[in-house]
# Entry
Amino acid sequence: MYTKLMINLLLEPIDIMEVAPRDGLQNEAEVVSTPDKIALVERLIAIGARRIEVASFVNPRRVPPMADAEGVIVGLPDDAAVRYTALCMNVRGVERAIATRQGARGVDEAGCVIVATDRFGIANQGQTVVEGIAANREMIALALSAGMRAQVTVAASFGCPFEGSVPPTRVIDIAARMADAGAQEVALADTIGVAVPAQVADLVGAVREKLGPGVPTRVHLHDTRGMAPANAWAAYQAGCRTFDSALGGLGGCPFAPGAAGNVATEELAYLFARSGVATGIDLESALAANAWFAGVMGRALPSRVGRAGDFHVTKERENA
# Structure
């Protein structure tokens, strides 16, 4: 037991990118108000989140819940310890992200995205893989020239709702091209929640080997089939140290049929803490934030740890 504890204490910590304000809300029928989105970010900071995806610069007609992106960003706490990220689907999105930095703190990081298949890429942002590579090169260069960080998510890395299985060699090649273009991090997204641990371990390991230590790999997991926590652990064992998650397990993609919510922040906090891996997230505070957020949404949230809570042993009542 002592040896096991000592080994656990040596495990490397992870970083969590909290995506509830963007990916958690983008597919909701009920639009959350701008003040509530800002209050959500404040609560996420309070639970320990230090990297938060706060908005998406997309066409508001296509994704109405993200129509107030600039309004959310202008109201964010100016906390130097927190890095704010926004999803940018095209060059216009990066330009909007840059504009938030004029005379204000604004967005720190452009989160660019490319889809690993043509059919989903066309549905998601109107471009094939080849077109996406060219567009993301331009987006990365623009963000970096403005003094922002730039990272890229490879959507549908583990499976596509329109084309089925995605060849790992294609994902590895896209990741390498994005790193060569200057991306400071590459994320592999299980956009529709079809991956299993062996697949995640293999692909994360292969991408990390291809990119080398200079470009970290992040994973973005959806929990459509209940595999997301196991997939997160497989990614960790393969060397990944940064994970996306959403408070309460909300989320989904408007253009990916069948996609369920993100892996819940509470579930990653529970999984890794119980495994001896530091996350920076306080689980009890996250559970309280879950309860508040459920009130905002008007329903219980999908997170299983959010419902069950942390592991506490029930004390038997002493006999009088």
Q: What stands out?
A: Residues 11-299 form a domain with the TIM Barrel fold (CATH 3.20.20.70). Confidence is low (pLDDT under 50) at residues 1-7. The chain has one domain: 11-299. Residues 69 and 251 are 17 Å apart (CA to CA).
